[in-house]
Amino acid sequence: MSLLFKIALVALLHLAFFAAYPETGPFGNYYLAISLLLWTGFTLFLGTAVALARLLSGALGMVLNLAIFFLLGLSLAFTMPQEDKTSVLEKLQNGKYPDRATLNSGMKRFGINLDKEIKNGVKDLGEEAQKAVKKI
Predict the structure, then answer these.
(1) Contact predicate 21/105, CB 8 Å
(2) Fewest CB atoms less than 10 Å from the CB: which of 20, 53, 109, 112?
(3) What is the rounded CA–CA span in Å between residue 69 and residue 47?
(4) Nearest C-alpha neighbor of 40 from the set 77, 90, 3, 95
(5) In 10 A of CB 95, how many CB atoms?
(6) How many CA atoms does the CB half-sphere of 33 hold within 13 Å?
(7) How far apart are CA 91 and CA 28, in angstroms?
């Protein structure tokens, strides 16, 4: 894996957790920034070790990369602050998965309104279908 791809995966995993469980309270944004910096640095630091392991065996390099991202997901689920004082890991173990309303409120934190995007997509699809019918 290239270095930029690994950094993008770190950021994507953080954003996925924050969109799925947005009730982080007043310190959630600080947690996101600090965790993103720490895990990016950790991934960069271990990147040389993984590259050396990949010289010995390509499969070993892939296993090490998967282990790093597994630890990243586990640590996010264990340490991400929540307003109800229940960790994300406990919520996942109890089967409390995010629903559509939770994802929509989580995506609004990043400036994306899923309901509006879906309505616009349906409208555009209808217009394209009408154009296709006219052509036929």
Answers:
(1) no
(2) 112
(3) 12
(4) 3
(5) 6
(6) 3
(7) 17
Q: How far is it, in rounded angstroms, from Cα 136 to Cα 134?
A: 5
A 10 A CB-CB count for 85 gives 8
User: Which tokens hold the place of 70?
Assistant: 């597994």
pLDDT tens for the chain, 136 residues: list them.
Answer: 578 898 999 999 999 999 899 888 888 889 999 999 999 999 988 888 888 888 888 788 889 889 999 999 999 999 999 988 888 999 999 998 988 888 888 888 888 887 787 888 888 888 888 888 888 8
On whether the CB atoms of residues 77 and 14 are closer than 8 A, the answer is: no
Check residue 1 and give its pLDDT: 58
Asked if 51 and 62 touch (Cβ cutoff 8 Å), the reply is: no
* Cβ neighbours of 6 (radius 10 Å): 19
Contact 13, 70 (CB under 8 A): no
Instruction: Please count the residues of the chain.
Output: 136
> What phi, psi does 63 have (nearest 5°)?
-65, -40
